[in-house]
Amino acid sequence: MPQKAVIFDLDGVIFNTEDCWKVGFEIITKKYGLPLDENYRVTICGKSETKIIEELNEMFPTLDALTYRKEIADEYVRQIENGEYHLKEGFFELITALKEKNYKIALATSNLRWRMEKIFNNKGIDPYQIFDVIITVSEIGNRTKPDPYIFLKAAEELDADPTQTMVIEDSLNGIEAAVRGNFIPIMDKDLIPPSEYAKKHCYKIVDSLLDIIPLIN
């Protein structure tokens, strides 16, 4: 019998590390003098680096897109190593409530596994003690959001029915992936405002992970 389940994104949902990506993007984009702004950055959240670089090569044929993106990632990691981020409100309360109701819990992130581990470990948290399944971009390659593959893989490993599984996301690509995979999309507002698509398709849009606890049955 399929398990009751919830799948979490990482950056912008569990930690405010989407801020770190935003700062890195702003610093390095200014350094390169590229005409890219927050509206562009929102469109790439959740995508694979390979896909982002392919798109940049089409937009700016003379740009060393690989180096540009590496410098953004390096700035992101610098902030992580310096602890310039925090756990978002309600995470442990929601995890406790889910476990009390015997939900299976997965993490599905477009971040690399070693970076995911660093983010948790730097705050003294062992993700392998919290999640039943962890899927990162390190395992799925280019099949990243808005492709639903990462969520479908997590659901399969949880033995969960997507139509009975909540996906908690902050990015528009993540919400689209959840919709395309027939999951129950929950948007946890972070840096990215809900689009009309998100407003139409999300089961719930919340300001805090605490707001999800009443949805658990």
Structural notes for this entry:
The structure is a single chain. The chain has 217 residues and is an alpha/beta fold. 45% of the residues lie in helices and 16% in strands. It contains 10 helices and 6 strands; from the N terminus they run E-H-H-H-H-H-E-H-E-H-H-E-H-E-H-E. The chain has helices at residues 18-32, 38-44, 49-59, 65-81, 91-100, 113-121, 137-140, 149-158, 172-180, 196-201, and strands at residues 3-8, 104-109, 133-136, 160-169, 184-188, 204-206. Helix 10 links the parallel strand 5 (184-188) and strand 6 (204-206). Helix 1 (18-32) crosses helix 4 (65-81). The two termini are 17 Å apart. The mean pLDDT is 95.
What are its keywords?
16% strand; six-stranded parallel sheet; 217 residues; 10 helices; alpha/beta
